[in-house]
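ugh ok fine here u go
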Amino acid sequence: MEFEDDYSVIRGETEEETYFFVKQDHGLINPLNDIPLFADAEKGILNMIVEIPRETNAKLELKTGDPLSQIIQDKKKGKKRYVHDVFPYKGYIWNYGCFPQTWENPSEVHMETGALGDGDPLDVCEIGSSIAHIGQVHQVKVLGVLGMIDEGEMDWKVLGIRVGDPLAEQVNDVEDLKRMVPGLLHATFSWFRTYKIPDGKPENLFAFRETVQPAHYAMDIIKECHDSWRKVMDGKISSKKVNPTNTTLKNDYSISTEQAEQIMKHATVARADSGLRRSESIHDDQCVPLPD
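structure:
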């Protein structure tokens, strides 16, 4: 079984928020490809990569087109992206991230929704009580899934809870969420429906008449997206948004950790040379253990 302290992040050397992933006793990895989807397949426990902690606004995401899929702050027209606060909430209302080894195939139409995948890893909303940190790898239990349609593309939002959360033993599916965390599902739909309106975009739409699908349905979606990722890794599909480079899988796309270090060095130097001042953080070039 994978554990949270098996992974840590290295902060990039520029002012931009950039986080590279390290596996304990191994070295640099590509988190999308090198972190297993399942932490414990028999118990249905999955690994989740935290990109955006709860109550924060910066739009951080894995740059999956790059060889090391580091976390960066997304930009639009050269400006860093932030989500607006959706009244009465502050920033994202859950710990937000994605499942490794998943990909929503933009060339496949989902049978029940009629929408194509958005070409990204499968998103996760972790609803536990603790605020996570950028780059943490949480072990989560799947509770359900929302079928959001964003500008015509399928953008599934899986709901999960960290296995170490105080509520984890009592919450196993959507009905448990309604009982134990009343108001959460309503808030989740409301947030996703309206968060882009301040940017001049229309409300997002949802499949299934705005009904959260149960845990077993969510697991089917996860397996479909895992299979799509496998097709990329097997060379059956090519996508500019998924770089198959890895340091652990021992396949045609594998590189050494030494090569990965050179890629990281080149990426940070290139960003620094673009006119950004280098960070003076004492954590630069150090492996920073993730907080509990």
